Amino acid sequence: MPELPEVETIVRQLRKQLVGQQIKKVKILRPSQWKQNNPKSVEKVLKHKTIQSINRRAKFIYIDFEDDCQLVIHLRMSGKLIWSDSDPKIDKYSRTIFYFTSGSSLQFNDTRALGTLVFLLPEKKDNWQTKLGLEPLGEDLDFEKLQELIQKSKLDMKSFLLDQSKVAGIGNIYAGEILFLAGIHPERKALTLTEKEIEKLRNTITLVLQLAVDKMGTSLGDGASNFRSLYNIEGEFQKMIMVYDREGEQCFKCKAPIFRIKQKGRSSYFCGECQQ
DNA sequence: AATCGTTCCTGATAGC
DNA sequence: TGCTATCAGGAACGAT
User: Fold this and answer.
1) Nucleotide nearest to A263 (CA to C1')
2) How far, in Å, are A21, A44, A116, A226 from residue A24 at the CA level?
3) Which of A92, A124, A156 is the last residue in one of the domains?
């Protein structure tokens, strides 16, 4: 499932391939995934546009064109972007295909079809998505701001980390790993965290996400949600997973069993000994 | 303003 | 065997 590190991996690879490419044709095979747009008009309007830059914010991919229009892609849980130097390899999960004048192609392939694409005119770019919180990669995760958010939140810590309007880009796998490594129980109420714990959490968020980016993401789960990068290659971070999907197995630190609980309908995995 | 439950989708898996 | 029910996940949305 693509979270921040997986999306960052894809974005870095896309940047190398896509900047300067001109769109020859767009073929939309699953129109319902295009939000706020008429799919037929999108196919027409994207034609001949040249890509200027690729960026990421949270788990969103932003593709900017030379005429200041923008394409935003969200992979949700099973979305994949697959590059080909020639024609794409179409299967039943191919949802939108981008053909370039160079002969290369990019396909948006998405088993569960929950991913979204949005085309935005320049004047629409600023005001269409819900508010995104602090960007956790690099030096942007400011301690004071994080502390303020945590201390005024009534959420438990797992829900806090998943709330994109607080810290943006963390999903179910990394939220669980971060809480394990920070030694914080997923049901801990945010406002009960000590200053020391908040500092530990801040460091752990940055460390885990940066390490996962270095490992080019986590490839775990069933075929549908099992991450692959732009060239269909697995990440490496699954080798370092401590708690996710390990219910009943031994904690790698203390040998106690890993528990699974449900919070807001999502699975949380944790060690009852290491996380108080 | 913050938080919660529901919805979207489909392959895998569990249960009968 | 073959069927049905449930689950997984992120974010938008409406309700509280």
Assistant:
1) B4
2) 9, 10, 22, 30
3) A124
